[in-house]
Structures are given as C-alpha cells and as structure tokens.
What does this fold into?
Amino acid sequence: MSFWVYCNSCFLSAAADRQLAVTTCGHVICSVCYQKGKQKNCLICSSQCQISPLSDKSSSEVKTLFSDINVVTTKHLTEISKVISFQSRHQRKLLTHYKKRNEKLEETFVKMKQEMQNMAKKLNEQSVYIAKMEKSLQHQSAMAPPVSQMSRASYSAHVQKPGAVSSRPSSQNMPGFHSSQSPSVSRFQGAPLTPELSAFNHRSAWTSPIFKPSSSFRGSMSSLVCPSP
It folds into this structure.
C-alpha cells in the first residue's frame, strides 16, 4: 500500500493489529479509531456514513482510488488518445466538408456578382436607348403638323361634291348594243368563204371554228335584219 495511506485520526499506517477502511464521506480511518467513535458516524466529520475495508476484496471503485497514479495515467492517457484521435478525424472531415462548401458558395457568389454587373450594364444601355427614342419622338412630334389640320386636309381630300363625278354608262348596259351588233354578226356568219380560205381549208386538215348555222336559222335571222315589205 502507498506511503500516503494512513488514518485521518491517528495518522498511523496499516499494521497487523490496525486495519484501514474508507468511509462513504471520503475519509480513511483505522479500526482502532473507528471503535472510539459512534457507530455509523464518521469520526472526522461526524456525518452518517458507511465504511469499506481496504483489502483485495474491495470494490473496483475503491481500488481505483488507491491505485498507482502512473498506471492510472498510462491507462487513461491511452484511452484519451483514442478518443482524441477519433474525434479529431471526424472534426477534420467536417472541416473539409465546410471548406469545400464555402468554396462552392464563393464561386456562386462571384458568378452572381458578374451576372448582376452584366444586368446593370444592360439596364443602363436600355435606359440610354429609351431616352434617345423618347427624345426622337418628341422631335418628330414637334416637327409634325397638328392633328386637327391633318384631319381637315384628309377630310377635304376624300369628300366628293354632288355632280362632280360623272358616271359613264357601260357600252354593255346601253340599250340596242346587242341589236346593233347582231345583224353584222349574222351577216358575217352567213357569208360564203373566200377562195383563199377555201383553198387553205382543203390543203390542211384543220376545220374552221366558225359557227355555221342551219338554213332555217339563217332565214329567221335574215327576216329579223331585213323584214319583208
């Protein structure tokens, strides 16, 4: 047992006739001093407590309190190193993920900034163009005559005065047009063919398209043109 383990009342170490124990309130007391005090009360702080003798049969929690600090340190440092390594690895992965995410966000931000600059440039160009067009329209409006004068001029140009336009009757609608032409047509159709036309007709197989009415039809037409006295 370590040199620092002693009774908190008599400050003596463990011996053959003196056995040490630990109380639930955290004090070490020997069996001789414990008998001097009240049962179930700590001789040091007078609080109610229970005692656990220090031996090989003590609980693991009690043994841990009295273990060698170097052994405990080595054991716990190994466990701590494992815990630190595990946590650090996952923290680095998370940090790498956030770095990549920030890089993508920065690239997106740069692209959006460029697009906004291009849009602002286009808006400025369109504003200049609109201002130029408005100025041109104002100039044209100033140079053009008033609307009232234009409407009067167009109205006077399209108005027709009564009797100004003379209507010429069509020759087809005139009475007697067909009657004056019909005798000449009938005379032409009833006339005999000339020798030249007859010779041409005999030489070629072409048939004259001239309509040849029957003798009764020619007689009726002749009676209409030259009525009998």
